[in-house]
Amino acid sequence: MTESPDTPPGRRRRSEGGGRARFRGWPERPAGLLWTDRPGPPRTPPRRRLRAAALALTVAVVASAGLGWAVWTRLNGNIRSDRATERELEKYESERPPAGPKGAQNILLIGSDNRGGGNGEYGEDSGTQRSDTTILLHLAANRASATAVSVPRDLMVQVPHCKRSDGSESEPQTVQFNWAFAFGGAACAIRTVERMTRIRIDHHIVVDFTGFKNMVDAVHGVQMCLPRPVRDDEAHVSLPAGRQTLDGEAALGYVRARKSLGDGSDTQRMARQQQFLAALVRKVQSNGVLLNPMRLYPVLDAATSSLTTDAGLASIRGLYELVRSMRSIPTAHVQFLTVPRTEYRYDPNRDQLVQPDADRLFGRLRDDRPVAVVPQPPAREAVGGGDGKAGSPGRGGRPAPGGSSTPAFPGSTAEHGGCE
To answer: Per-residue pLDDT for 290 more than 80?
Structure first.
């Protein structure tokens, strides 16, 4: 087909060979080569590109899920569930206090001085264990406050008959509190605390020496300010005076030191423990541990590797929900105090509850009503707290300053933990 004389210039026309029309002035193309086949990088069809992107995304999701599942499984597997304690408590359900207000929680924290496992360097393993530290932690239902109440190991209490590890039963008796854990483990300690306070214990956590050290190391140490040097060969600690960051080993020695500091009382040791825990709370909240997975994982790994808990907390989900519910509590409302106590009338080296102050404190916590803390008077030992003797800071329950009707007890808050 030839071009008509009437065809306007620049209009496409068919070639004489019947090929595709071209614009005038374009160069001749080689035979058999289309203009769409001009040299250049090969193009991937759109559908193939979408399939490749989807495959890459799927691989990334599966890999992340696999890593997350591995982490979850590891942390879950770390925790030891204390089924024996739960079975023992079920046998005495009829004598236990009723549950408290909905949403409020009472957790018994027990620091075990068991010398077995990795704890042998802190003393000879006699085959028994005692509660080196015991704290009743009350979480308000609205999570506006957390109150940690220390129970002195030398407090004289009524311990019920408890099942021993060999299957025999101990007799009911009045002895110092830390014998309850030695007699019948966590179940006996829980029943003793519930009998003394009439507060239902919802959960319990037992942590040993090694676990405490690992948790402190996981947050890269805790800063403390020591007004004088601390040296205690039995507690394996030697620290200079001044501002310093305690690693796990030093922190454990600091909170265990007793005989070489002040008057050697457990009261002063509890004050140091409360000061350290306040500093630890500040450290965890201030450096974003709870909101940063990279920082949270080492803490969870260290914590779960050394915890024995009831079934309700014996999972990452259970512990996460507990921590999540606490992370919004202001440090000023994380309170530390000790049960009101004084010198035991039959032995000056033991303690007894001060009444009615102790019952007033227990009643407020049992009903999920607020309590306040006021700074403790200056102690005779600068590193510790009050001496716990009659007429000393062991008493409490008086109205808080400023005309408030909330009873106040000698104590401290996490707002001023460490060197603050």
So the answer is: no
Place of tokens 């009472």: 106
Helices 83-91 and 179-197 pack at an angle, to 10 degrees, of 50
Straight-line distance from the first to the last Cα atom of the chain, in angstroms, rounded to the nearest whole number: 98
Contact 340, 409 (CB under 8 A): yes
Write the CA distances from 250 to 5, 198, 216, 244, 253, integer angstroms.
Answer: 104, 37, 10, 11, 5
- The pTM of this model reads 0.76
The token duo for 259 is 């005989």
- Report d(CA 275, CA 336) in Å as an integer: 8
Task: Give the integer Cα–Cα distance in Å for 420 and 416.
Answer: 5
What's the chain's Rg over C-alpha atoms? 34
Residue 308 burial (CB count, 10 A): 21
Which residue bears the tokens 């009101």?
340
> Tokens for 266?
């457990």
The C-alpha atoms of residue 318 and residue 314 are separated, in whole angstroms, by 7
Q: Are 376 and 411 in contact (CB under 8 A)?
A: yes
In what helix (H) or strand (E) does residue 227 lie, and over which residues does it extend?
Answer: none
Q: Could you give the CA distance from residue 249 to residue 211 in angstroms, rounded to a whole number? A: 11
- Decide: 230 and 257 in contact? Cβ < 8 Å: yes
Q: How far is CA 295 from CA 13, 259, 290, 298, 389, in A?
A: 73, 36, 8, 6, 43
Alpha helices (H) along 353-395: 357-366
Name the β-bridge partners of 42.
none
What residues have CB less than 8 Å from 229, skipping those under 6 apart? 238, 239, 240, 241
Give pLDDT, residue 355.
95
State which H helix or E strand residue 405 sits in: none
pLDDT, position 105: 95
Per the model's pLDDT, the better-predicted residue between 14 and 276 turns out to be 276
Of 266, 254, 256, 267, nearest to 226 by C-alpha is 254
Contact assessment for residue 215 and residue 248, using Cβ atoms and an 8 Å cutoff? yes
Tell me the angle at which helices 209-218 and 293-304 cross, rounded to the nearest 10 degrees: 170
Biggest distance spanned by C-alpha atoms of the chain: 132
What residues contact residue 295 under an 8 Å CB cut-off, 6+ apart?
A: 287, 288, 289
- How many C-beta neighbours within 10 Å does residue 402 have? 8
